[in-house]
Amino acid sequence: MKRIREYGIEIGNLAPGPLNKITDVEGVLVGHETLDTEHHKTGVTVILPCRDNPFVTKLTAAAYVHNGFGKSQGLVQLEELGTLETPIALTNTLNVGKVHDALVDLILEQCAGEGVEVTSVNPVVGECNDSVLNRIQDRPVGTEEVRRAVKAAEKDFKEGAVGAGCGTVCFGLKGGIGSASRMFEIGGETYTLGALVQSNFGSTEDLMINGKPVGKEIVSLTEPAVLDRGSIMVIMATDLPVSDRQLKRILKRAGAGLSRTGSFMGHGSGDIVIGFTTANRIPEKMEKELLTLRILKEEALETAFRAAAEATEEAVLNSLAMAETMTGYRGKVKHSLTDLWLSKL
Questions:
Q1: Does residue 271 carry a catalytic annotation?
Q2: Cα dihedral angle (312, 299, 274, 320), rounded to 10 degrees?
Q3: I need a surface site. Which of 66, 72, 260, 343 has the fewest CB within 10 A?
């Protein structure tokens, strides 16, 4: 399978990073564990925000809930304190609690090995409902799957029907995991912003690719999704020196990228963005009561807004381009965008 740029489709004006993935942000890694069996089309995807222990030195973070039809965990404290202290995991709706437990165990073990006492921890877990293709009631994702995903984390990770995206459906087609990044200058310094999506949303007829109404061409070629529902998780990483409030402003621009793919964030779609910056770290233990942080002025965020929209749009398209046609556990077939349209370019 090929990514969307390999078909000559270039999204936006800003340049991508070397891999054109969220891992272009230094220190970020992504790992998958995929369960692709007769009955199960599901898995877990883990985003490691840094190479060291995020609980000991937390990352400035924010979240934006565009439409709250979702079952995520950890967003209340993340929003209140503006920090991320664990990896971010994505899975299916009914496995959120089990994945949360696995992240608690991992952080407790890591901190114990470093002599750090932990009495509370706030894992962040997002989800999409993959029950169209996956027998979701079996809840097969747990501790061992999360551990394998963490162990497999790498910079040049796979996209498409892998990990948490194994069983997802996007615009009535086979969705999955997709990513993209943008590099840009502010104040003479170069920064990176990357997005990763778990795509599971959209009405087939509404699909747009770089302004072209592709959905209208393919709606008769497959069993279409009529309603914009199902959810999307967007994980955004950057190395910009911003506050959690400024970061939330950036995260909101993911909505512009989703709209450019044809989404209007329908009633039944949980559209959630979670983001962090590697630039401003917050120590768990501080000797002094004051902490000095370096942040951009508000006007300097303009380019980051564009980067967030462009990276999100391209990440969605990569999730579609890299996903192969799949038959689910009840014989339901979801065709790939490549089979129906991209291969004919």
A1: yes
A2: 0
A3: 343
